[in-house]
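Journal club side-thread
Mid-discussion, someone asked how the predicted structure for our own chain would compare to the paper's figures. Pasting it here so we can look after the session.
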Amino acid sequence: MLRGTLSIWPRFIDAQRMSPEHAAKRHTVCLKWRSLPRSTSRPGDLSMAKPAKRVAVTGAAGQISYSLLFRIANGDLLGKDQPVILQLLDLPQAQAAVKGVVMELEDCAFPLLFGVAVTDDPKVAFKDADVAMLVGSRPRSKGMERKDLLSANAEIFTIQGRALNEVASRDVKVLTSISTSA
C-alpha cells in the first residue's frame, strides 16, 4: 500500500502549446505525489495524518499574505499536526510574483504543506476552502477619497463573498482585513 498524499502545484503553460479548449486559461494545475514522513516522536508527526485543510488566501503576492503564508505552512494557524493545502488568489498581472512565493514555499519544505494552487479566479481559489483569509484589497492611490476606496474594495469583497457562498465548505471560517489609510 502506498503512503502519501496528492500535492497540488501550479503549472504555467505556454498558450501556444495548449489545446483550443484550454487556450483561454492562464494556467492549469498539475498533481504531484508527495510521500508522508515515517512515524517519529517529534512534533508534527504525520503518521496518523489528518485530512488536509484547504486555506484560501487572497492578495497572495502582497506583503500581508507573504508574511501569513509561511506561518500557515509551518502550522501556526491550524496546529502543528494539521496538514494544509494553500489556495492562492491574486490578480492576473501578479501571477508571476505569486509563482515566486510558491517557489519559496517549496524551498522551505514545510512538512504540513501538502499543496499549493494558484489562480486569479475566486471560484477556483475558494473551492472547498475550510479557511478563507481575505487580505487582498485595493490600495489607496494618490488623490483617492476614502469613500472611493471603500466603494472599490466593497466590489472586490462582494465578488469574493459570492464565490465563497457558492463553492467553499459550508463551515468555512472567514477573516477579512482592509486598510483605509493613506
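Post-session note: The CA atoms of residues 140 and 182 lie 6 Å apart.
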